[in-house]
Each structure stands twice: as C-alpha cells, then as structure tokens.
Amino acid sequence: MKAILFLFLFLHFTNAYQMPVAWQLVKEENGIRLYSRPSRQSKFNDIRIEADLAGTLSQIAAILADAGRYTDWAYAIKTSTIVKKINSDDFIYYSVIDVPWPGSDRDFYAHCKIYYDSATHNLRVVSESLRNYMPEKKNIVRVPLSKATWDIRAMSRNRIHLEYVLELDPGGNVPAWLMNLFSTKGPLQTFENLKQKLKK
Q1: What is the residue range of 136's domain?
Q2: Residue 190 belongs to a domain
Q3: CB < 8 Å & 24+ apart, contacts of 64-67
Q4: What CATH number does the domain containing 130 carry?
Q5: Which of 191, 58, 36 has the alpha carbon at shortest distance from 118?
Q6: Is residue 37 part of a domain?
Q7: Total structural domains in the chain?
C-alpha cells in the first residue's frame, strides 16, 4: 500500500513539474505584445514577444545575420562583433550590454544559427550564449545564461509574424530596477527599433 502511495505521489509531482507554465501578458504597446513566465533555469522570468511586422523573411534574416550591426536596433547593446563565421547562417558573436551606473556592463559570446524551411516559409533563429568561450574581462560581468529563439513566418508577401522567446540570467547582483529594465523596457524598445528598421 505504501509503495502504491509513493508511486502516486511521485507521478503527481513529476507531472506537475513538467507541465509548462502559462505565459502572462505583461504589456502591449504599438502592436507589440510582451509576455512573461517563471523560468526553470534562472531566477529571472522568461520573456516572450509577439508582433506582426511589415517586412519579409529575407529582410529579417539579413538583419539577424548581421551581428556587427546589432547596435543599430538592439536595446543597450554597446558593441557587437562576429568573432567566428562558420557560414552565412552559422556564426559566433560577442556583445557588450551597456548597464547604467552603479551597475556593471555585461558581456557574452553566443552561437547563432539560422534555419529556413522553404516548404513552410518559416524562419527560426537560435542564439545561445557560450559562457566559457573566452576568458572573462575585467570590470565586465559575464552573462551566465542567454538563449534567444526567433520563430518567424510569412503572413503575406510583405508581412511577417514574429515570436521571440528569451531565457536570461544577467549575472551578478541585480537590483529590481535593473531587472525591470531587462524584462520590460529593453525588449519593447528593441522590437520598436526593429519595426522601424524593417520599414527602412
């Protein structure tokens, strides 16, 4: 009897742990919807962005492949450079995030891959940090976790639907105001900038 009870409790809690946590809408601004949910890998919430934007898959792919110009539109990116190019759709890049005083700037190396499905006209871009790719730099906090996934599909010839999910731990001691900067203002401003860049 005890064995059956133990098995029941084990299965119950295992299934509860594995159940996906629902996204909660946090803010909607200019057609950009920002969602949040508790993360299983970090003390910081995962972020999800959804938006319908004017543009094409080839345009957004070209923007995401040009890591050297992330500073043009990605919020608080101070510098960004490609350090290793495997091919046009597979590369490693380095970025520094500008953090307001008294916080410390963050940096990360990330491996980015771009996948295009010609049958479904879908585009997926996955960018995942490489924590120990190179030694840490003085006075800059290395981001221990950053994984960004972009799922983009063509709605029409000149319009795309974009879903973006970010799992992030900025590392170090992060006060509440800085956490909010990473989780709300930063993503919304990034996608507003991206929308304007696509229009150009």
Answers
A1: 23-199
A2: yes
A3: 64/112, 64/114, 64/125, 64/150, 65/89, 65/91, 65/112, 65/114, 67/91, 67/93, 67/95, 67/112
A4: 3.30.530.20
A5: 58
A6: yes
A7: 1
Q: Supply the pLDDT for residue 180.
A: 62
What does the pLDDT look like over 161-178, one tens digit per residue? 999 999 988 888 776 566
- The residue ranges of DSSP E strands in the chain, in sequence order, are 24-29, 32-37, 46-54, 77-87, 90-97, 106-117, 122-129, 141-142, 145-156, 159-169
Beta strands 141-142; 106-117: pairing state: parallel
State the greatest distance between any 2 C-alpha atoms of the chain, in Å, as a whole number: 69
Specify whether the CB–CB gap between 151 and 137 falls below 8 A: no
> What pLDDT digit, counting tens, does each position of 67-93 carry?
999 999 999 999 999 999 999 999 999
Q: What SS3 class is residue 51?
A: strand
Examine residue 10 and state whether it is found in any structural domain, yes or no.
no
Does residue 89 belong to any structural domain of this protein? yes
Residue 34 contacts residue 188 (beta carbons within 8 Å): yes
Question: Cβ atoms within 10 A of the Cβ of 141, count?
Answer: 20
As given in the structure block, the two tokens for residue 153 are 């599909």
**Helices (H), ranges, the chain:** 2-18, 57-65, 176-180, 186-199
d(CA 93, CA 43): 25
C-alpha angle 200-146-64 in degrees, rounded to nearest 5: 25
